[in-house]
Every structure is written in structure tokens, then in C-alpha cells.
Specification:
The chain has 10 helices and 12 strands. It is α/β, with parallel strands linked by helices.
């Protein structure tokens, strides 16, 4: 395992890049150093063609308890210019990113999880936006994304009350993709990553792009906007390789081109 910094540990496991916040005594609260470490790891994820999926987690049983309030009181801000909280919330990577959540994903920690594409959670994990209880506001994507991921009225209730949502309830609302026994979130996230990385890189990347962008497309322009993106994949080497491999009853050898 290599360290982007002492507070963020980064390790390539096959085609997956595991990024772990390493401040367990602070329940992995985010300070500026954590944001810089995550941002550097995400840059490597998007830059390196050998890496296909990222997995964001926290060390020693807690995902992230949010912003380091002591550092905030001392005048430090964890947001990075153009990238936001955690070096992630305003600029997610182009490649898929999975949150492996154990323990607490609260406040900014919940916003980090929401900035990921998929969430795997241990049964004892908790999600929540308690900012209103502290005179703060969930301005790093929590208010924007939670209502997109679950029923808007339910999202509003959690935002206004600051109450916590159990992983089981979050799974029931569709916020959590996979619910696993406590302590197994990272292992399950890596299994999910392996399932994704078995597929064609261009197809995966473009599928994420279209699903992320299409919500803003006017209804009468959807097909027109999608067409050149689809054609860029259908005209690729890997599209031909996938068809040949299927007809020849073998595993495809993707080239990402």
C-alpha cells in the first residue's frame, strides 16, 4: 500500500484503486490534507488506463464523520478550488467510484458517499446530514444529491431534522446498492468493482457519462445528444472485439479503444 499522504492511503488492487481515509482517531474527519490526498488519488484513477474503478473507504470501522470541526474553528477549510469538499464533491472522477461504508457516513461523510456512483454498506453503518443541528448547512452536495437518490420528501425530512438513517433503511430507499455484514463493505465493493472492470472500458465510461448528464437534457434533444456519444462506442475496436468474442465463445480482450 502506498500513501498519497499519511492521512490518505492508496492501493491499486488489480484494476481497482482503493482510497482510504486514515484518521481513525478522528473517525476519519476530513481536513485539508485529506482533501488533497483524495484529489491526488482521483487524478491518478482518471489518468492511469490500467485503473478502471475507484473504491473510497475509511480505516478502522468508520467511513467519514464529516468535516474536521476543530480545524474549521481554527480557520482551515477542507474545500479545494474547483473540486469542493474532500477533493471530490464538486468534481467526481470520470471513471466509476464506489463508496465502501462502515460505521459513520455523516455530514460531509454522507456527502462524500453521495458523490460516489455506487454505495456498499455494512449493516451497522449510518448515514445522515446533521448540519442543521450545528448551525451549518450541507453545502457540499448533500442537499443537491440526496433528493436525486431517494424520494424528495424523505430526503427533505432527513435534511430538516438532521436525523440519522440506518444502512438497512438506506438500502430500502435505494440509496445503498448492496448491504453486507458489518466489516465486509470493502470486500464487497471490490467484488462489485471486479464485476465492472470485466466489461469494456469505453462502454463503462460512456454509460456513466450519459446517465450523469442526461438528467439535464431537454426531452426533445435527448436522442440527438446521445447519438454521437453512442456512436463513439459502437465505432470502437472494443465493440468489434466484443461481438467477435461472443460469436467465438471466448472472453473478450479489451483494449479501451
Amino acid at each position: 500500500m502506498s500513501a498519497a499522504s499519511e492521512v490518505v492511503l492508496v492501493e491499486a488492487r488489480g484494476a481497482a484503486l482503493v482510497i482510504e481515509i486514515n484518521r481513525p482517531k478522528q473517525r476519519n474527519a476530513v481536513n485539508r490534507a485529506v482533501s488533497l490526498g483524495i484529489a491526488a488519488a482521483l487524478d491518478e484513477l482518471d489518468r492511469n488506463p490500467a485503473l478502471r474503478v475507484g473504491v473510497l473507504s475509511g480505516r478502522e470501522g468508520s467511513f467519514c464523520s464529516g468535516m474536521d470541526l476543530r480545524a474549521f474553528v481554527d480557520g482551515e477549510r477542507p474545500e479545494l478550488e474547483g473540486r469542493g469538499f474532500g477533493g471530490l464533491c464538486e468534481k467526481p472522477p470520470a471513471k466509476p467510484l464506489i463508496a465502501a461504508v462502515e460505521g459513520y457516513a455523516l455530514a460531509g461523510g454522507c456527502e462524500l458517499a453521495l458523490a460516489c456512483d455506487l454505495i456498499v454498506a455494512g449493516e451497522d453503518a449510518w448515514f445522515g446530514l446533521p448540519e442543521v443541528c450545528r448551525g451549518l448547512i450541507a453545502g457540499s452536495g448533500g442537499l443537491l444529491r440526496l433528493r436525486q437518490r431517494i424520494a424528495p420528501a424523505i430526503a427533505l425530512e432527513y435534511a430538516l431534522t438532521g436525523e440519522r438513517m440506518s444502512a438497512r433503511v438506506a438500502h430500502g430507499w435505494g440509496l445503498v446498492n448492496r448491504l453486507v455484514p458489518t466489516g465486509q463493505a470493502l470486500a464487497e465493493a471490490l467484488k462489485l468493482a471486479a464485476r465492472i472492470t470485466a466489461n469494456a472500458p469505453l462502454s463503462v465510461a460512456m454509460s456513466k457519462r450519459i446517465m450523469c448528464e442526461c438528467a439535464d437534457w431537454p426531452g426533445h434533444e435527448m436522442w440527438q445528444r446521445q447519438r454521437p456519444l453512442i456512436e463513439s462506442v459502437l465505432g470502437s475496436h472494443d465493440a468489434q472485439e466484443g461481438a467477435r468474442a461472443f460469436s467465438e465463445k471466448r472472453e473478450p480482450a479489451w483494449r479501451g479503444e
